[in-house]
Amino acid sequence: MNNSRFRTRAVHAGHGLEPSTGAHAVPIFQTSTFGYGDADRGERLFSGQERGYFYSRLGNPTVRAFEEKLASLEGTQDAVAFASGMGAVSALALTVLKPGDEVAFIGPLYGGTEGFFRHILDKFGVTVWEADDLDDLAARLTPNVRMVYVETPTNPTLRITDLKRAADLAHSVGALAVADNTFASPALTRPAEHGIDVVLHSATKYLGGHGDAIGGILAGNADLMGELRVTGLRHVGASLGPQEAYLFLRGMKTLPLRMDAHCAGAQMIAEHFRAHPAIRAVYYPGLPEHAGHNVAARQMRAFGGMVSFDLHGGYDAAKAFLNGLGLFVQAVSLGDVESLSCHPASTTHQLLGADTLARQGVTPGLARLSVGIEDPLDLIEDIERALEHVTVAPTL
Ligand SMILES: Cc1ncc(COP(=O)(O)O)c(C=O)c1O
Predict the structure, then answer these.
(1) Same domain, 319 and 196
(2) In the record, which positions carry N6-(pyridoxal phosphate)lysine (predicted)?
(3) Shortest-distance Cα residue to atom 15 of ligand 1
(4) Whether 184 and 286 share a structural domain
(5) What is the pLDDT of residues 49-101, one digit of tens each?
(6) Bridge partners, 145 (sequence order)
(7) SS3 state of residue 389
(8) Which of 229, 253, 277 is the last residue of a domain?
(9) What lines the ligand 1 site, CB under 6 Å?
(10) Parent domain of 368
(11) Does residue 72 sit in the same domain as residue 87?
């Protein structure tokens, strides 16, 4: 199976016919516990001498099929699923970090991740710092850095980081290179092919794709995934349920097809509005003028389904625009077949505070669009109508 092409693996990897019944769809193993037969076997399962299912916090066959499919799509040895993307972030941190370690990241990150790094990790004696870019990271790296964390494209400014260079820099000080691949999905970028050690997803987004389940997953080498299973699932316990795993398995079968539609729509929207008088800047890595376009063209198969507009006129303009949209429902989250829109500075990134957001370009005028798979011409008309609500101040 792992020699098959991506679209074939998206459909088939991680499961075959269920052996006891021949069920074609992966059954939802809706059980908390598994009878292990006799006391000796129970001891062997708990000590890890024998592999098998015994308690769904630590492993469940439906969840396992999701892990295997994602590992196959990312091209990693293994993967471990969690109850949410944030469950994956916190399990990773609690597994690999210890007091005295440093975490370096390139911002902005998703507000929840950056908030966890900035406001929670310092309680555990871990220092967290933000590098402006990879040059800044290279200049400031020390042997205390245990984890270099990047998101590409970033949420919400669609900044691009060169994954190979980030991985090389991390490895130069013995640190773990981690990439949040939520925005790209493995259909567009496979960070492990560029040397990244751990790939993270909010499965809630493109992997599921239908806005009906919350989940997260980490992918990487088998040893580290084994450690994550022990710390992240046994001790922290943010485990994914089988219903959600089933929905992710179903969603991932169409991931490559959906991503093609998301990317085509987003590219059309970005090109159509790049010179609109109400918009100060359109952020989309598929535009040649985007600062990360060349790197994105190297490491992405296409440029993704997320577009952000920075509107002239700040928060008032962003609000008028978002309130004027019809097809783009105002809601956080992204990656659904339905188009969504949000104002990051007042919602997903609010906790980071005005100074950090201003420095990172998450301005009051920034509106984030998650382009769904509807007909792009309808989406363009919807955006045009909404922009009519925005008053553009005359340039002096
Ligand atoms: C890039 C990115 N990473 C991680 C997360 C966290 O995922 P979850 O909401 O599934 O916990 C999000 C959520 O929006 C995200 O956008």
Answers:
(1) no
(2) 205
(3) 110
(4) no
(5) 999 999 999 999 999 999 999 999 999 999 999 999 999 999 999 999 999 99
(6) 102
(7) coil
(8) 253
(9) 84-86, 110, 112-113, 151, 155, 180, 182-183, 202, 204, 214, 216
(10) 255-387
(11) yes
